[in-house]
Design goal:
Blueprint lengths: L2 E8 L3 H8 L16 E4 L9 E8 L2 E12 L3 E8 L4 E10 L5 E10 L5 H4 L2 H23 L1
Antiparallel strand pairs: 1-7, 2-3, 3-4, 4-5, 5-6, 6-7
Length: 147
């Protein structure tokens, strides 16, 4: 199963970052605008077993997805895909507090690309490339929002 990891040190406390990431209304502001992320339904605050339904534009197609939050704690948020184009998707966000008052956000994603014809477009390499670009935007947006 392909995996992707990225991290960034952000100019805020771990508590402030966790609070920001816990509000589903903040997700579009830190998502690559090319994805055109639209939250269709979600709890206001991320909670264990909460489900977020959203739509993105990727590879020329609008795609609807649902993720369930399977772990929610002070320093970690884990979501798994329950409906969407990939065979599987797990996104683990871990927040590490630093001694200098900053924090580090580590994003780790495990995924299995789709099968069938869509699998020819959404290869592991293309998904990884998209994640790399998306995380670059995410981290710069978080630094701007929280700095």
């Amino acid at each position: 199963m392909p995996e992707f990891s990225a991290s960034a040190t952000l100019p805020c406390s771990a508590d402030r970052l966790r609070e920001f990431l816990g509000l589903t209304a903040n997700l579009p502001a830190i998502s690559d605008p090319e994805l055109e992320l639209e939250v269709l339904s979600a709890p206001e605050i991320i909670t264990l077993d909460g489900v977020i339904e959203f739509r993105i534009t990727a590879y020329g197609f609008k795609q609807r997805m649902q993720h369930r939050y399977v772990e929610v704690s002070e320093r970690q948020i884990v979501a798994v895909q329950i409906d969407g184009p990939t065979r599987s998707w797990l996104h683990r966000q871990t927040i590490q507090e630093n001694e200098d008052g900053t924090c580090t956000l580590v994003d780790h994603i495990e995924f299995e690309p789709p099968g069938g014809m869509l699998g020819y477009l959404m290869t592991a390499d293309r998904i990884t490339e998209s994640l790399t670009d998306g995380m670059e935007f995410r981290y710069s947006s978080l630094a701007r929002e929280l700095g």
